[in-house]
Hints:
two-stranded parallel sheet; alpha+beta
Amino acid sequence: MIFYENISVAGGPASVTTYDKEVLLKAVLDGEINPGKVFTKTYDLAQINEAYQDMVDRKVIKSYIKVSD
């Protein structure tokens, strides 16, 4: 279905090497952070500016934008 509607899903490399791997690994092993939790807050489409600002301000890791009900 995605092919026929001309929709694509893409990704790219993450800059994980810019972070201190020893600090992050210890935080994961100590249970201080959960690396499996990606979307930390849900926003409506009307709140898109707030969602981006919260990511910039590091209030959330990733914003989940709900486009429709």
